[in-house]
Design brief:
Spore_III_AF, 4-stranded mixed β-sheet, transmembrane, GMP Synthetase, Chain A, domain 3, alpha+beta, transmembrane helix, 5 helices
Length: 197
């Protein structure tokens, strides 16, 4: 028991000398506080290691650290990183799409407040360039008034009741020009429809 206590006190003393030496050679910058934090964690581990061994005889800090190291170097980590990267890309793409749609509607309502607008944007992430591409922007200009009856195609598999009229007049071109300049995209990917409310 005395030998264990002697080894414990020696380990704490060596750790304190090591920490003091490292702190003396660290430059005075923002990294110093992070280094002190890590060194403090090391000192805590050295202090509590024998206490943990009293409760768990099989506890070995080296085995836990080697397992963590092997996980970081193993193929599981690469698979996990790719999985989380894919999930992050999907979530970011969806958020980007929603924010872009809101921005389109806000810009149109500020510039042309006489109408209401809906937006649908198709955004795809380009892995090669690491950028988001806007493939399609569809703007619906909601016109109040009596709704026109459109042809309804009834099929055994689907029903198509589309009431979208593509705007190719001045209003449609002005909307395209506005969004093209705001979003920095080509006019070709923007389509403007007029729908009755």
């Amino acid at each position: 028991m005395i030998d264990l206590l002697k080894v414990w006190v020696t380990n704490i003393t060596v750790a304190i000398f090591f920490i003091t030496a490292v702190e003396m050679i660290l430059p005075d910058n923002s990294m110093k506080k992070y280094a002190k934090f890590v060194l403090g964690l090391m000192l805590i581990v050295v202090i509590i290691n024998p206490i943990i061994k009293l409760f768990d005889k099989d506890f070995d800090l080296n085995s836990y650290s080697s397992k963590a190291t092997s996980y970081m170097e193993g193929s599981n980590q690469a698979a996990d990183i790719n999985k989380y990267k894919d999930i992050n890309i999907v979530n970011t793409t969806e958020n980007f799409k929603i924010n872009l749609q809101k921005e389109c509607i806000t810009n149109l309502e500020e510039t042309y407040p006489e109408n209401k607008y809906n937006a649908d944007v198709d955004v795809v992430y380009d892995n090669k360039n690491g950028a988001f591409n806007i493939n399609k922007v569809e703007i619906e200009v909601v016109d109040s008034g009596v709704q026109n009856i459109k042809n309804i195609k009834i099929d055994t598999q689907s029903v198509d009741a589309s009431n979208k009229n593509i705007l190719t007049n001045t209003q449609g071109n002005q909307i395209k020009k506005l969004l093209s300049s705001k979003l920095k995209i080509s006019n070709d990917v923007i389509t403007v429809y007029k729908v009755n409310s």
